[in-house]
Specification:
The protein is α/β, with parallel strands linked by helices. The chain has one domain: Aldolase class I (TIM Barrel), CATH 3.20.20.70. It has twelve helices and eight strands. The chain has an eight-stranded parallel beta sheet. The longest helix is centred in the last third of the chain and has 19 residues.
């Protein structure tokens, strides 16, 4: 059985002071939660988040990582820097990084390799745009993005990753894939991993849905056999809403 994982992607929101406040509100609401709970915060909030979650089961994640250990990369953070700050997870290849900051499938792969080899768990984002879905390219695209992202990893490294399927057309638009659409595409991703790395790895890797999961649709999505959790955007910025997603079984 794959343990569900609910991760909040705060994007460019919350100051360190606001981070502490939100997490103090969240902690009692998710105490004893069945899923793995992760909050992926802006870099300036990492230390505040680590302090606020100390002694709890909530894990702290970052929103990006560089693939070099050090060097002349102004504004970037290495995997080791994140590890020493207490970070456990890191989002890689989010559609906004691809759209606005020149992220490519190849740099996603380099970042993912750097993350797993430093002991971080990468949450690797893949997904199609509206026009790509309408043209019938969804399955081919998510298969390619996933396999390129995992290129060069051992079976155990692949198993330690989390994949987040985020249909780009459902990010921040209020649109959501149907439960069946999300499950079907995540099944394609799982099958692609199984074909390359074996059924055991394909069955073991956790794959989230990242297209506007919220308290209203979480139960239906989480009832699907291939969906192991969510990468939550807007709903992660309010403790009560995020807790409702985490506690979807209650």
């Amino acid at each position: 059985m794959r343990k569900p994982i609910i991760a909040g992607n705060w994007k460019m929101n919350k100051t360190p002071k606001e981070t502490k406040q939100l997490l103090e509100e969240l902690k009692p609401l998710v105490k004893g939660a069945k899923p793995t709970v992760v909050v992926c915060v802006p870099a300036v909030d990492i230390q505040a988040a680590v302090r606020a979650t100390k002694g709890t089961a909530i894990k702290v994640g970052a929103q990006n990582v560089h693939f070099k250990e050090s060097g002349a990369y102004t504004g970037e953070l290495s995997a080791q820097m994140l590890v020493e700050c207490g970070v456990k997870y890191v989002i890689i290849g989010h559609s906004e990084r691809r759209q606005y900051f020149g992220e490519t499938d190849q740099t996603v792969n380099l970042r993912a390799l750097a993350a797993v080899r430093a002991g971080l768990t990468p949450i690797i984002c893949v997904g199609e745009k509206k026009e790509e879905r309408e043209a019938g390219y969804t399955n081919a695209l998510v298969t390619y993005q996933t396999l390129i992202a995992l290129e060069g990893m051992s079976e155990s490294e692949v198993k330690s990753c989390v994949i987040a399927y985020e249909p780009v057309w459902a990010i921040g638009t209020g649109l959501t894939a149907t439960d069946e659409q999300a499950n079907e595409t995540i099944g394609v991703i799982r099958s692609a991993i199984a074909a390359k790395y074996g059924k055991r790895i394909g069955n073991a890797i956790r794959i989230q849905y990242g297209g506007s999961m919220n308290p209203k649709n979480v139960k239906g999505l989480m009832a699907q056999p291939h969906i192991d959790g969510g990468l939550i955007g807007g709903a992660s910025l309010k403790a009560e809403d995020f807790a409702k997603v985490v506690n979807y079984e209650d």
